[in-house]
Fold these 2 entries.
Entry 1:
Amino acid sequence: MSVAEIETPLLPIRIVPDPVLRKMARAVTPADMDEVRALIPTMFATMYAAPGIGLAAPQIGRLLRLVVIDLAPEKVPTPLVLINPEVVAASEETATAEEGCLSVPEQYAEVTRPARVKVRYLDEHGDKKEIEGEGLLAACLQHEIDHLNGVLFVDYLSALKRNMLLRRLAKDQKGKAARK
Ligand SMILES: [Zn+2]
């Protein structure tokens, strides 16, 4: 890691029930690109420090359609920046896997989603790109794009499971606040 990366300031990650997590993020326009390019290293630094494998701009309070992903930062870092990502194809076949979220800290649940997706996006240079993913990448792409639409993984659970998980989170957060 370079000195520049170490010195990148971290941003506080918004946690449920922060209302920003439920808002629709707007598309990035060419006029936003300077801000977006400045945000990217900060978002990666914040995600790596958390640690997490994906972070969407609404999670740091910016309602822009911007996502960063790195599935294996410790093994083979493959930072992926997606601007205005859009799922353009999804398999009928589904896959169920455990998910967590930096905005729903330390809570995990099984979520069923399309097993494979194709996503169209712009990279950090504004170039049109496409990526196809399965397994962890497919789930992560869908999870992060959901954030841009104000959707959280807990929305896929039954009301009973969701409420249990959110109550447990609220209790944990209260405990943490009391210990501070
Ligand atoms: Zn998340």
Entry 2:
Amino acid sequence: MKKDIDDFVVIGSGFGGSIPAQKLVKAGYSVTLLERGPWRNSLPVKSMGISDRASYPHGWKLYSHVLRTFHAGYMPKKGMTVNKYGLFEAFHHKGLITACTSGVGGGSHAYSGLHQRATVPNFWDGYAEGLSDETMERHYVEVMEKFASRKKTPEDKVPNTTAELFADSELFTDKNNHDEPANGIQFPETPGQPKIVNTEAGVQRWESSYDDDSFLGSPSGAKSSLDFIYLAEAIKDGLVVKDLCQVTSINRIENGEGTLYCVKVMDLANSIEREFYSRKVILAAGALNTNKLLFHSRDVAKGLSGMPQLGKNIGTNGDHGGYWALQDEGKDYSKGLPIHGPIGIKGEEDTYTIACGIPGLQHVPLPASIKTKLSEGVILAGMGQDACDGVASYKQGRLSIDYDASNSKIFDDINRCMDIAEQKSAKKIYRLPINFTVHTCGGAHLGSSIESGVINAEGEVFDNPGLYVTDGAALPASPGGPPSMPIAAWASHVAEGIISRGEAGKR
Ligand SMILES: Cc1cc2nc3c(=O)[nH]c(=O)nc-3n(C[C@H](O)[C@H](O)[C@H](O)COP(=O)(O)OP(=O)(O)OC[C@H]3O[C@@H](n4cnc5c(N)ncnc54)[C@H](O)[C@@H]3O)c2cc1C
């Protein structure tokens, strides 16, 4: 039987996957996007005419839909899948917990909507000729324009901004030494009176009510997610999105007509195995699952070979946080944007720390007294460039990361800031007892040669032509600030390179 062969198969629909998928179909290529998670039940997705939508972990669904899969060394090697419709996947490694998301739109459902270039200066410089902060700039600009992201202003009347909280403070400031990030949020035209608006692609979304645009998802669509910002338009251009399709391996086939890839999939809706064929594969399953898929495809399925640097240079972006029990009676810090803004200690503004409430907390099924108590404080999240020296390995079907936080000065810096904040405010910061990151990067990283990286400046795996990596795994180092825009810019750069070189046959 003759196989259907796509020009491109894209694996994963987060920042690394949705952006190339949209660009490649727009350029006239046939593209199938494989995503293991479901479409989410938001106003935009409903208005796109998608009928099978899974709940966010909201209301009582918090308990059934928050966790997809949990992995740990003491568990079965496939981990424990609680609910295939769950939002988060977590991995417990030695001394480190890493988490990522699942669903059409990937991490854009969980993210706080902070849009920012890498905060590390000259982040893209020095890896390969022709690649630099300067050449990446137009990709940042284009993606942020597509998201219509912008900084909040006093006219937006956003509650609980750090600018407002610290306006009269002698101790704290909303200015640290980093530029304030923009927000991927639909700000209300008239503050306090959110209404439904239409996007250019004809999708409906609510303006933000500054209440529920949470890391548990934004059913109103006020927080910008990739499913409707990128994929709505791409579907109209011919993109085929297969949700609940979990890729199990990538297999390279060399025949007389050149390289072909067979992507094996478990169709989670019907529990059947399927195969997709394409000349080119864009791998964007998120840093953790991209590493896992590459290891599995090489070491177990024997579908790929080489990649001597695979699993190296894993970073956590210096993520370290805690809950600052401000106990400001009568305050409700759960209101506002997902992130209230940057926070610096006067005279000590170097470390990137942000404060956020717990948006949507009031809708969580917990006793009112607990919700009130929690909403009187904020979460502090510090980040910055770490040593990026973690090593991922894959043994007996299990991905584990060896990461020694004591190699990275950033954690001392953040802890010092938290110590000062605690002393100056006389309010306790309850820190996480274990390193925890939602910003894993590296492992299939950019390098100047096969001795220093897995992919080249075009995003192509050095020794597996036609296979590209465009997600967080591709980053050469931790970006220091929120990583979605560096990943998005990289994905845009790779897709445009493919299009401009005219690779693969068009329809
Ligand atoms: C709570 C939270 C808050 C955050 N806040 C911010 C923020 O404000 N700003 C910011 O810049 N970043 C933020 N981030 C980080 C940001 O979400 C990630 O850096 C970003 O989503 C990574 O993009 P990606 O394309 O690498 O992977 P993802 O967005 O994770 O996408 C990967 C996709 O691949 C799918 N997938 C995985 N395995 C398979 C498989 N085998 N087959 C098929 N599909 C598969 C996954 O389901 C997922 O949809 C936050 C993250 C979290 C969790």
